[in-house]
Amino acid sequence: MELKDAIYERQSMRDFSDREISDADLKEIVTDASRAPSWANSQPWQVFIAKGGMLARIKQQHAEWDNAGRGGNSDIDTIHRGEWAPVAQQNMQQWSNQVLQELGNNMAASMKFSKSQHQLFNASAIVYLVLPKDAAGWSLYDLGAFGQTLMLSATDHGIQSIPAYELVKFPNMIRKEFKIGDNQMIAMGIALGYAKTDEAINQIYTKRTPVDSFLTIKD
Ligand SMILES: Cc1cc2nc3c(=O)[nH]c(=O)nc-3n(C[C@H](O)[C@H](O)[C@H](O)COP(=O)(O)O)c2cc1C
């Protein structure tokens, strides 16, 4: 696949089929991701992947904790929408409007969106990106590059993805399942799978602001 096609074909999917991803594909995708640049080649990441029985347990517990009304407590702090920069708030609002509109602007549509979160998107595998809690701030930049390279490689393998806070909002559960130490940050999760492409929830191709609204080139 051409790189440009992978960049434009990647989009977040929120409902995956039951088809499994082979370990060989998972390993190759993570190997590709490890080509991401990092500060002085520090490669600060650790990667944990849940699939099969382990993932089934995580999904079940996630649903139970959600049902019990337990709030998220991600290792990276979240801030209220109103505290984001004005431009980001505006873009988030436009995204919410687009999602609702494309799902049909009704209760059933927004329920479907919430349900997908609750079910961890029925992912075939979840990749957890982990950093030491005392990692340099720069390592978060490195981890972002790692995550995007991973998702582009997945696209190249015909595998769809979604990076999501939802996947890491109960980090202690993940720490316990994988026996990850308290000194490690479960920074981000990426769900992988073969998307049910006919589902409306998987047909949201998000817009971007025009490049001239955020780009400055000076000669
Ligand atoms: C840090 C981060 C956290 C996200 N968390 C969620 C989430 O919890 N639930 C969700 O449905 N999408 C989540 N997303 C996906 C974004 O909504 C999505 O990337 C954005 O709307 C752009 O759409 P696209 O990925 O299809 O291009 C997250 C994305 C990022 C980068």
Automatic annotation (TrEMBL):
Keywords: Flavoprotein, FMN, Oxidoreductase. One of its GO terms (molecular function) is oxidoreductase activity. Its cofactor is FMN. It comes from the Bacteria. SUPFAM superfamilies: FMN-dependent nitroreductase-like (SSF55469). InterPro entries: Nitroreductase, Nitroreductase-like. The keyword Mitochondrion does not apply. Pfam families: Nitroreductase (PF00881). Residues 7-194 form the Nitroreductase domain. Belongs to the nitroreductase family. PANTHER family: NAD(P)H NITROREDUCTASE YDGI-RELATED, NITROREDUCTASE. This is Nitroreductase domain-containing protein. It comes from Pediococcus argentinicus.
